[in-house]
Amino acid sequence: MTQTRSEIENRTLTELIRAEIRQALIKTRCTLPGVVVTFDGTKARVRPLIKTLLAPDATPISLPEIVDVPVCFPVSSGGASYITVPIKAGDTGTLTFFDRDMARWLYGDGKAVEPESVRIHDLTDASFTPDLTPFDNAIGASTDNLDVVNGDMSISMLPDGKIKIENSTAELIDLLSQILEKLVSTTVATTMGPQPLSTAADFTAIKLLLDTLKG
Question: Is the Cβ–Cβ distance between 48 and 38 less than 8 Å?
Fold first, then answer.
């Protein structure tokens, strides 16, 4: 069927609009994986790890390193309560690009502010969270336990109320239980012969409670 000039023009206009929308979406930053280049304890220099592809046949463009990137950790109570993890060059995670210019808020007191510019989803308005790794480097999380690990040291909280605090050499709860067992069986010389410690019954009760925590 032969198309009319009006139909061709309408189709062309629609295609142009779609192309413009697609180009705008391609340039809109939301989240990307990134790798830490440097970290000073507060801000990081991060390199985005996925290149930008503007068209299927275009040459991928490497994004520049982003400086002064705030690093996100769980924090509350005005900074009095927090959990941190050690971050080193080479660690990967998620770059999140905020809707608006973050500069004035980041260097302010945390209250609502007006943005310094009209930029949106800009590379410079990123934060970094150390929470993402490739599958080859996956940590292999437990499906049951809550685990905290730092190098050779680990704490595992089990859903049945038990806990493991251990390294590659020993487990802390077990060691404490062994110490209490030794104290319970310790005797002292008296005129009546060897006698248990006067606190042996207390040590026995404590050991029984401690053993309920042993994972």
Answer: no
Question: pLDDT per residue over 156-190, tens digit each?
Answer: 999 999 999 999 999 999 999 999 999 999 998 88
Q: Of 170, 173, 168, which Cα lies nearest the Cα of 157?
A: 173
Q: Decide if pLDDT at 67 tops 80.
A: yes
Amino acid 118: pLDDT: 93
Contact by Cβ (8 Å): 40, 52: no
Give the residue among 87, 81, 47, 45 at the shortest CA–CA distance from 64: 47
How remote is the C-alpha of 139 from its chain's centroid?
A: 12
The rounded distance, in Å, linking the Cα atoms of 164 and 155 is 6
CA atoms within 13 A on the CB side of 190: 10
* Residue found by looking up tokens 């905290």 in the block: 148
Q: 68: helix, coil or strand?
A: strand
The answer to whether residues 183 and 200 touch, using CB atoms and an 8 Å cutoff, is yes
162 neighbors 215 (Cβ within 8 angstroms): yes
Give the CATH number of domain 5-137; options: 3.40.50.300, 3.40.50.12160, 2.40.50.230, 2.60.120.260: 2.40.50.230
